[in-house]
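REQUEST ID: PR-0412
SUBMITTED BY: lab tech R.K.
PRIORITY: routine
TASK: structure prediction, single protein chain
INPUT:
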Amino acid sequence: MIDATLSWLPMLAALLAAGAAGGLLAGLLGVGGGIVIVPVLDLALVAAGVDPAVAMHVAVATSMATIVPTSISSSRSHAKRGSIDFAVVRRWSLPIVIGALAGSLLASSVDARVLAGVFGTVAALAALKMVLPLDHVVLRPAIPGGPAGATIPGAIGAISAMMGIGGGTLSVPSMTLCGEPVHKAVGTAALLGLWISVPATVGYLLAQPGPTSMPPWTIGWVSLPGFAIIAPVSWLVAPVGARLAHSLDRRKLSAAFGAFLLLVAARMLYRAFG
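STATUS: complete
OUTPUT:
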């Protein structure tokens, strides 16, 4: 149970900031706001007295729930600008849904250090991709079909669900490496975030954490207060990021966020192996 003697104001401020940053980045970089929300929420929960063995699961699940409205808001803005590749969405929908549901079920049963390790490793790789000038590197002229075409979105869905992110951190570079224009990739990733977040959230809501001390007003692994604070802020800010995505220097933004992400990855890896 959260220590009632601790002030709720610092946590409220942290959740509001996480929601704003998550929504902005979801629209701006297509990386999924969860990449910011998870570490901030994990820190806030631990600071409020939640057991670290529980906090990471709650942070991941709650972040995933907030991505549902954020994805709707962000993808609507990108659709108005014609920057969603609906052919890719149709091909990737089923495997990404299956992967997301499987990932949430797996995450519910593993140790918090495993989740921190997955988050830290993927965040570090994503940070390197953002920092290094690799934006124009293309490995294939088109997104593959067949078994590989199903394996890629399936893996994206599973890993994203275990990280509590909308999938853009993985799907945007996957698409751009296969020749998809970056603005199309960002918009497509925003819509695919809905295909990841809905089944993964259902999995986390239905989870049975067992006899462990949980924050109040938590269903499964999802914190209702955390969702109630973060989700509306992310919803409101996501369209701002989508508008900025078409006017700012993405290389500088990517490099700056990549540097921040390296720090987040270092903390998560320390949490997993320290």
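NOTES: The CA atoms of residues 2 and 48 lie 6 Å apart.
REVIEWED BY: pending
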